[in-house]
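Run log, item B.
One chain of 707 residues. Sequence copied directly from the ordering sheet:
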Amino acid sequence: MVTLGLALLLAVGLVAAKLAQWLRLPSATGYIMAGLLLGPSGIGVITEESVGHSLDHFTQIALMLIAFGIGEHIEIKKIKAYAGSVFWTGLCEALGAFCLVSLAIFAVLSGSEDLSQRWQLSDQLVLSCLLGAVSVATAPAATLLVIREIKAKGPLTSSLLAVIALDNGLAIMIFGLAVSLSHQIIGQGDLPLIIALGNGFFEILLSLVLGVITGVCLDFALRKMSSEDEMMTAGLALLLLCSELAVFSDLSPLLAGMMTGFTLVNRAERDVRVFRALNSFEPPIYVLFFTLAGSHLDITNIGSAGLVGIVYFFARILGKIVGANIGARLGKTARIVRRYIGLTLLPQAGVAIGLIFLLSADSSLSVYAQIITPVVLTGVFLSELLGPLASKYALVNAKEAVLAEKGAGGGAKCAQMTEKACDDFMRSEEGVTILPWTWEKLTPSPNPQDVVVFGATRRHTVNGIARIATIFAHHYQASPMAVFVQPPGTDPPPHNFELERSEVESMGYDLKTEIVPDPHVPSGLVVAVEYYNAKAVVLSYPLHDKSSAFSEILETVATHVGCPVVVVQFYGVLHTERILVPVTDMHDLAEVFPVVVALGKVGEHHITLLYMMSSDASPETIETKTEQIYDWLDRRPQQVTITVKSVPTDARVMTIQQEAEEHDIVVMGAIRPSGVRKFFFGSLADSLSRELRKPLIVVYDAKKNRS
């Protein structure tokens, strides 16, 4: 049953996360909703009766990895400038939540006739104090997942992570103080208040020391390792050992984990490879953590918590927001941080639940835990659903979310769109923009005999196609020719090629045109290319074409012509200044090199050759291959400045996508596989045409397609 539970949590959690992303919600919200569906509040597949506590280990592992990940972001050099503001913000938001929740709960308990009869004044004070202390805790998991999902970066993000680290230390200290104060109120305090407070400080100090020791040990171990697998294993082993030692010693695993990451990232060597290694291990653990959290939430708690639970939830939100704003003002924080920091501190989960478990285990306070537990769980339930939304809203509006800021390549146009909506927009007629030619006019050959043919069917991008065709014509000392295939007996095209002619003439060339009478576009193009013995033919992917018509056209043309077929896919604004050329072997390089030369001749370009190698390639092999490529380029009769970057990779499409972020356009050579060959081996160019968020030029070599 445990294995089935794991499978269900992972599968349903992943589907729910995809649905949440489609609805513009954080993945964490989707995971929690999946847990609710599977747990007692839903279909009841994941319950204590079915899986018991067998999956709790994943929660402990996830919390340690989350704490370690937060520590990575608290780098002294980066936060030194605003350390004071972090301190004041963290202190005031913690005290704000504690004070406001305590006062609000006390007002409800004393103002309600039913509750005031059940609980004496001393009991009301204890309940108010303990609920106020628990309210301080903030859940780092949901916040960190949102930050990673939207790739947030900036002063708000850095301040937030540092405040969360401080917040959880303050939560433990304030909780310890509240418990001691409660013992004094009910007359069962074994220790004076000042000693109890000192014990809280001592617990925090020991947790931090344990984290420092673990961080130093991890740093020492990393120096002996070069393999990512070894680093992942060693890192996980030391982190879990640290967690178990903290639990065994009644210390805080969360603080110890944060301090481990903090120590490692602030060492002089700053070897952070283990963070990257563990990142590949985290996704399924995160899915399990949040779906399990959702499965433990019970909607019936809202009913049993009643008015106290609702007051607790809203008072905590108000206390966090007001307190954080006051602290940010005292610390003279940037206006954008003051405005949004409070909204990012709403999630509450693991630490708060751990604190109410401690109350349940305290014999003198367990009676209060009966009302505190449903109240806090109500707050956890609501804050885990709304908290990630509030965090994402704050980070996006603070302009620190990479996807929101860059709009997946769409700039301000995509600022309010989902990732998918932005991608669709940038591939549409509204999103594609062909800027006017601004470089100097080209000088044509005196008597060009050859042509470069381009299709003149797609009117919205035909000027972009004309530009690319003219660049190739300039390389081949030929003329650009626009070809329109017209079925016999139909009226001639109404446009008279004015867009193409205007673009070509702005580049310094004259345009040739040809209307080919043919019932089928592919055969008409083939006839024109063969009749004029074209040096190349340039086509464009259709914008938002869901049919296979273009694939059939390309298949026919690429198979039957004797020249290279250049296919352009437009995406957003067409720029060609920074060109990325991905290749997988020297044959690919030889085939795409003429295209690179053609582009390199025009204007000012920066060209990067991305040579993708096997992931197990050694540094020596990579260096040798890079030298071989430079030597090959030096021996070419046509010279163009190219930067060679050889990289090992496990996923070619992802590697190209990452590198393309720093470039304007991707140019690559490709075969056109079909039939069984395409089914088994696929096509890198086809995959890129679907996934890449940059303009793409694919060159299908005639000889290679016929082989």
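Observations after the first pass:
- Residues 486 and 565 are 21 Å apart (CA to CA).
- The longest strand covers residues 606-614.
Flagged for discussion on Thursday.
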